Amino acid sequence: MLLNYLKIACRNLWKDKFYSLINILGLTIGVTCGMLLLLYVTDELSYDRYQAKASQIYRIVSHITEPDKDHRMRSTQPPLVKTLKQDYPFVKNYVRFFPYGQVMFRQGEKRFYEDHIYAADSTVFDVFSYKFVEGDPKTALAQPGSVVLTQKAAQKFFGSGSALGQSLQTNDTTFYKVTGVLEDIPKNSHFTFNGLLSLGSKERRASEWDGIYIYSYLVLPENFDTKILESKFPEVYDKYMGPIFKRMGIKISYELQPLTSIHLYSNLEGESNGNIGYVYTFSAVAFFMLLLASINYMNLATARSAKRAKEVGLRKVMGSARSRLMAQFLTESVLMTVLALSVSLFLVMILLPFFNSVSGKEIQFRELLRPQYVLIALGIVGFTGFISGSYPAFYLSAFEPATVLKGAFNAKGGSFFRKSLVVAQFAISLTMLICTWIVYKQLNFMRNHDLGYDQEQVLTIDYRGRQPRQQFNSLRNTLLTNPNILDVASASAPTSHIGDRTLFTVESNTGLKEMGFRPMRVDYDYLKTMGMRLVAGRDFSEKIPADTLNSVIVNQATVQRMGWKEPLGKKVILGSLPQPDQPAQPVAQVIGVVKDFHQQSLYSLIEPMIILYRPANKVIHIKIRPRDMEKTIAFIGQQWRETYPDRLFEYRFLDQDFELAYEADEIRSRVFTAFSALTILIACLGLFGLATFTTEQRVKEIGVRKVLGASVSSVVVLLSKDFTKLVLFSFPIAIPIAWYSMYTWLQHFPYKTDIGVWVFVAACLLTLLICWTTVIYQSIKAAMTNPVKSLRKE
Q1: Where are the domains of the chain?
Q2: Hey, CA dihedral for 680, 683, 685, 688, is it positive or negative?
Q3: Angle between the 2-15 and 322-359 helix axes, to the nearest 10 degrees?
Q4: Maximum CA extent, the chain
Q5: pTM for the full predicted model
Q6: What is d(CA 42, CA 92) in angstroms, rounded to the nearest whole number?
Q7: pLDDT tens digits along 566-621
């Protein structure tokens, strides 16, 4: 029976080649895109799940509450997890990561800067199941002066030979022995590194409760109720941290984050993870693309019902049950989907490298051979085949044989349903088009938003260590002899990444208060080099010696936070309130207020900050002209190597830091835009097929109209207006859905664009234009046909 169904299905597909091609093409696009999006979604859901103890590992998050501000941070104090392990027996293990950032290593004559270097407890390999290529995980970080590298880092230093037992020297002349080599950390990890150092000197700071700067992870028993441990955090705070923070009006609470939820549910300060919202969005897009392709099939199948009516009638007369007829039509739709899936698998194999480059993933085609993906592929066939064939099967199998064999069958049956499906198609397509437009508008807004300083053509060099002021002055003076170098200044950090908060004692309207501010250390030329504008007071000056220790500049956010009506002259002390048994700290005064500028990307609010003068800062900012940039950079490199022969010359442009901050959303935007365009293409394929069939059905009517004097333009309008009405009906459905979706999405951004009416108007006009472009070819072709050809048999 099944073989018979397949034979008939193949004959029908071959008989109507044009419509079969449209259906298969639409289904192929839908299935291909659906599979690619599902690969993306499953990759997002796989983060950190390869860890053997993934269900038992938790990260501790700090929630810091100041009198006027809240912060949620992924870091904690160094002693916290060790204390929890000692005080609460149900804590099975812990590990801490102390960030070093970028470190310069020497190996013989080789020198490299290596990113993502951390010091870690020796328990790290008991907690996390990283795979060792060389070395023993039990002893790898047990001894001071040990380092464990990833394969990529080890090959950089030691080539293809064994790295085990080799030595590396940091720039501060500390030697580390390589005690292990790991496989490169999988891409689907929320936390990656290139090297882990034994604690060494960091061990001395591991008992300090006043610094919040390390990443802490705990291992708890299986199926442990985390509320039990979270209920203990207040007593830990009162016992160990209360005496330090309570007098400052600061309260710290903690929460446990399951390891497997960090990537999709956590975007705290300083981290850029995925977003569960995008997983839902891309899953919905995959579903709608398959649905759109299925709608095409249903539309064309029901529209062509007149051609299948006699077949159904004859089968029923010959005794065929309705269930068998339904099975026949479902077999045809499933066969169509299987053909589309076959082509889709080939397309996925070809398109996967391009998809990876667009989406930032490293998905391999062999992933599709895993059992779960085979089940997904079968699910796609079943879902799409059933959805595509369900309505035609029910509709066509319901024909009464007496009616259709007498020739009294009305071919317009099911037209309301077809029209509803076309409206649904274009409502979905228009919704995605509007959303894509607003996503692009928001990203463009962030790229072009006024940051409060000039980031164009600003080259930055991170010295990564201390340098004598005399050497920097010598370098600065030499660089300024080049006419293409406009200004040179130094600061404690790149302008796009000001450091963590530091405690200051600041004069408020009710007296001195201890509060946290973002600090920045700059030299005399910094504000001028960066094009920052003072709104009150003055800049640091070489002519005023007191500026070196007794003067600070604040931003407008600080003035607003403190409620100062007259900020100039307000007192600022670096550190906590002076104690009777402690030496007095220098008391500085506010000499200027700088216009607010963004210390981080536009995902973060501008924070109150205090700018101090310091002559020796580790990041050099060089403002250069856009002309002859290669020669200018070569000149800077030459002068750098002559001044600092023991330091590598590595630079980046300041605007690159901001581009990196938006990279994840840029990637998602590209993916969403591509699939949005493809949904419109699928809808247009269905509309094209439906327009073709409609013109075929009305060819005699058109011939009569032309004989009676109708012009080509009037016939084109006649054939196009029905489809135009359907597209117009989709507007009031799509616009509210798109507006609400984008309004909700934009609330995640502190600085956002306005949605704007023109976006909806332009998207609607573009949709109409696409509709007309799709149907006008068939309309003109039908309108220009000689009426003699269509009426000669009448």
Answers
A1: 2-43+276-445+663-791, 68-249, 464-646
A2: negative
A3: 70
A4: 113
A5: 0.79
A6: 31
A7: 999 899 887 766 655 555 667 889 999 999 988 777 777 888 999 999 887 888 99
